[in-house]
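Example record

One chain of 164 residues, shown exactly as stored in the release files.
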Amino acid sequence: MANIHINIGSNQDRKQNIATAISALNALFTNIVISSVYQSPAEGFDGDDFYNVGVNANTELSLKETAKKLHDIEERQGRDRTQPKFSSRKIDLDLVLYAEVIDEQANLPRDDILKYAFVLAPLAELNAELIHPVEQQSYQTLWQRFQSSNECELTQYNINKILE
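Predicted structure tokens for this chain:
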């Protein structure tokens, strides 16, 4: 059984797309725990604000199978992979952590953890004391350090307000 962390992002029909993704994750994984919703401006392009949500879960699936299932959910929700990396999107499901796996090819732990507040904030919310396998610091410490050295434009909402 692997503990995983997924980041869900959307800036198109945000509430519906995130709710649909969470429902799909609930059907695939066990012990789902969902962070607050973090609203942030689009990064790297002009577009509507994103909602991002972190999800902790357990899975019996392999790393490769887990990544494939997340990709399948995106496809079913109409993710257009022909668009540039930095563009508006209906849904984005990023596998941020897969147990303690360090795998550069699979981008695990995901390098976005140390780059973007909208990835690190929900991760730290759900896993404050968990240690980053490369940095060897807790996610709470990494989040505090990030906040002190970066401008963070995040608005935090209770997930239940979004999923009503």
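Notes: The longest helix spans residues 14-28.
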